[in-house]
Design brief:
By secondary structure, the protein is an alpha+beta fold. Helices cover 20% and strands 38% of the residues.
């Protein structure tokens, strides 16, 4: 932790009940090779601080990019003024809120490992680009990567000191094929779906080297494939599609501020209500969902949230029964229910709100071969390509890049444009099989949107493959 920042914080003056400083210093680099042509690199640096104050029952905050002692004091004064002004109209009495005094630190795996050079990145991306552009029917292709490092420091007037050092690697490979009036896109786990904390070692875990030829071949197979048939059948969703299913129909509905109505005029509300916790059957007995910010390589792992609450693993859904929401300290106080440490902001100039972090489905005991063998009539689907869900996060319609029919317990024909629809409140109860550790992947998204003003935040999802019974499936002709 920077000694000068600690010194500046200790020099700040405020007569409020409690105040805190959250400093964020984030650096990003982007490299891309498109159709064998290296694109110019892009780099960004974002640095600033958020000052938060509890005073007289009110709550106020102010952000600043002026991180000098004078700049921090000016922001603290503004935050204190807002806190006192809001006291008579506040939804909550800030005097009852926790006043974090925790001390600790966190670092991503390989956070301090030697970084690849720009040349090394371009060489790897160029190799995959050349391999992807292997056929005249491949009309567009690119290999890219985004890397980020971030330093987060949280200091409080109660003596809290938290320092967290993050490193993210997010590669992507996309191939578009066209022939006879049809266009098909195939990606490596979706756009930026390969998103983890740590260093370049994650490329080996996901087989990034060699992916250009593999993804191009699959795009060409899709061009020759028939449309997915329509009808009611079993659906085997691989991990990279389960990520989207978890995100949209479990993660967002369980955000406590959304349940309380905070997103109603922007991104919608939730079909979940407060009286459901502890009594509502969200899914079949096989559904076990955890909030887990402790898995080192997952995208949204951390030791403390942005309100200074210690992050710990907790069940949200256990054996199909709904136990607790995704709600940080402030929402927990408003609702009178237990939540988790998920008050998070996407940068220094946004306040923390209830966000997904790592939201995972716990693995079961079925291998992929066993799941396929148990399906008489169904379809395997992989890699999300489209999504639509209503403003209560209930009725949904999702599409995938890749499909393969399952007939008599065996994988058969590759099909394109596989889609399925359902209702969240019923869909998870049709969960029939949950894959074991061998089917599990640790993925995520760096671009989950929510809030006014908008915040785009990193979210992790680990999931095995899953089988759902009697799903409404349809193809591109439907």
């Amino acid at each position: 932790m920077n000694d000068s920042l600690q010194s500046d914080f200790k020099a700040l003056r405020c007569t409020a009940d409690f105040w805190s400083l959250r400093m964020v210093d984030e650096r990003a680099e982007n490299y891309c090779v498109r159709k064998n042509v290296p694109q110019p690199p892009s780099m960004s640096l974002d640095r600033g601080a958020m000052l938060t104050v509890y005073a007289g029952g009110g709550y106020g905050y102010a952000a600043t990019s002026d991180t000098s002692r004078a700049g921090l004091q000016a922001a603290l004064d503004r935050a204190a003024s807002w806190a006192r002004s809001s006291a008579i109209r506040s939804l909550i009495d800030s005097r009852a809120l926790p006043r974090p005094a925790l001390r600790g630190d966190y670092a991503s795996p390989e956070a301090n490992a030697k970084r690849w050079s720009r040349r090394a990145w371009y060489e790897v991306l160029a190799d995959e680009s050349r391999a992807a552009g292997c056929d005249s029917r491949i009309v567009d292709w690119e290999a890219s990567v985004e890397t980020r490092t971030a330093e987060h420091v949280y200091l409080t007037s109660e003596g809290g000191e938290v320092s967290q050092h993050f490193r993210f690697v997010m590669p992507s490979l996309t191939v578009t094929a066209h022939a006879n009036g049809d266009t098909q896109m195939r990606t490596l786990n979706g756009y930026r779906g390969l998103a983890q904390q740590g260093g370049e070692a994650m490329l080996e875990r996901f087989g990034f080297v060699g992916s250009g030829a593999r993804v191009a071949d699959e795009a060409l197979q899709l061009l020759a494939a028939p449309n997915c048939p329509s009808g009611v059948m079993d659906a085997l969703l691989l991990a990279d599609q389960m990520v989207l299913q978890i995100h949209e129909s479990i993660g967002h509905p369980l955000e406590l501020d959304r349940i309380l109505g905070d997103e109603r005029n922007f991104a919608g509300t939730s079909f979940v209500t407060l009286d459901m916790f502890g009594s509502y059957r969200y899914g079949s007995d096989l559904l076990n969902v955890t909030f887990d910010p402790t898995r080192p390589e997952e995208l949204a792992s951390y030791a403390f949230d942005d309100d200074g609450t210690r992050a710990e693993r907790a069940y949200l859904i256990r054996n199909g029964m709904l136990e607790r929401p995704l709600g940080g300290a402030i929402s927990q106080m408003r609702a009178g229910v237990a939540g988790v440490a998920n008050a998070r902001a996407d940068g220094w100039n946004r306040p923390p709100i209830d966000r997904m972090a790592n939201l995972n489905i716990e693995p079961g005991d079925a291998t992929l071969d066993q799941m396929i063998a148990g399906i008489e009539h169904g379809v395997l689907m992989s890699t999300n390509s489209s999504w639509s869900i209503d403003d209560s996060r209930n009725k949904f319609q999702f599409g995938c890049e890749w499909g393969q029919l399952i007939e008599g317990g065996k994988l058969t024909t590759v099909v394109k444009n596989p889609n399925y629809r359902g209702i969240s409140a019923n869909f998870w109860r049709s969960l029939e099989q949950v894959g074991d550790e061998s089917t599990l992947e640790v993925l995520g998204t760096p671009y989950c949107g929510k809030g006014e003003p908008s915040q785009l935040i990193r979210v992790g999802h680990a999931s095995p493959a899953c089988v759902f019974a009697a799903v409404d499936v349809f193809g591109g002709d439907a």
